[in-house]
Design a protein that fits this description.
The strands form 2 sheets. Strands 1, 2, 3, 4, 5, 10 and 11 form a 7-stranded antiparallel sheet that branches. The chain has 260 residues and is α+β, with helices and mostly antiparallel strands.
Length: 260
């Protein structure tokens, strides 16, 4: 199956049927997104957190309380159309599930947050290798020592995703991803992981480690798992997210989020 050739609706249908897989490389040309879902009582705090932290939390859309579909997933269902979801109670990760139907409440508000998988297609088109795709791995993600700006009851660390980029192509990767500010944009750090508090690239906090090819430099982009790290720290009574690397594939084209 050529997963890159599937339409977003076709991909979501497979996830709805129970397929669990990281989505990097799926439905090429279409934007992917992170999710954070909280009770309406916490929605303003999450909205303010996203507004104050636009690099890791670029909002693509917000669903009304209880709403399960919208313009980014026409005919879809936010409760079933992601490969896997995380379930948090009082900030603790208590489960990973393939459907939120049994957990759904009418007061839940869904935030759809831009994802760096979106600009992987233009990176590949420019001849820049993506290690986690080449190695069949989930992208590695790390908590950093950099603090996100707090908002109301929400606080936590910046989370980053890492891609080892050939040294001769780092400038191109920066230039290309910078054209996509709605999906994290340019990297937040290049080079020494210790400078942002990452002790071991082989021990990511989320996702999977990748082999770092000789001649490459680790490049770090702000990551939409940042709100889930804030949930873990801030401990709302209930919250949900996508399992890291298992994204919502939207109906929006990558090109919609590119600036000239």
């Amino acid at each position: 199956m050529d997963v890159g050739a599937l339409s977003p609706a076709e991909a979501r249908a497979r996830f709805r049927e129970g397929l669990v897989t990281p989505t990097s490389g799926w439905s090429l040309g279409y934007a992917q997104a992170n999710l954070i879902i909280v009770p309406k009582d916490y929605a303003f705090d999450v909205l303010l957190f996203a507004q104050r932290n636009p690099k890791p939390c670029p909002l693509l859309g917000v669903l009304d309380a209880g709403e399960t579909s919208g313009p980014l997933l026409e005919g879809g269902d936010i409760r079933t159309d992601v490969p896997a979801y995380t379930v948090y109670e009082d900030g603790d990760l208590v489960d990973t599930v393939t459907s939120l139907e049994d957990h759904w409440r009418d007061d839940l508000v869904t935030f759809i947050v831009g994802c760096s998988f979106t600009f992987e297609t233009p990176l590949l088109e420019a001849g820049i290798p993506i290690a986690h795709i080449d190695q069949g791995r989930n992208v590695p993600m790390y908590r950093t020592s950099v603090r996100a700006e707090s908002a109301g009851r929400m606080s936590g660390p910046l989370v980053v995703s890492m891609r080892p980029i050939p040294a001769s192509q780092v400038a191109d990767a920066v230039r290309i991803s910078a054209r996509y500010p709605a999906v994290h944009g340019a990297p937040v750090h290049v080079g020494d992981p210790g400078a942002i508090g990452i002790a071991d690239l082989d021990a990511p906090d989320f996702g999977q480690s990748v082999q770092i090819p000789e001649g490459t430099i680790p490049v770090f982009w702000a990551c939409g798992v940042t709100p889930q790290a804030a949930v873990m720290e801030s401990r709302p009574p209930i919250a949900f997210g996508h399992a890291p690397g298992h994204m919502l594939i939207t109906d929006a084209k990558d090109s919609q989020y590119a600036i000239p």
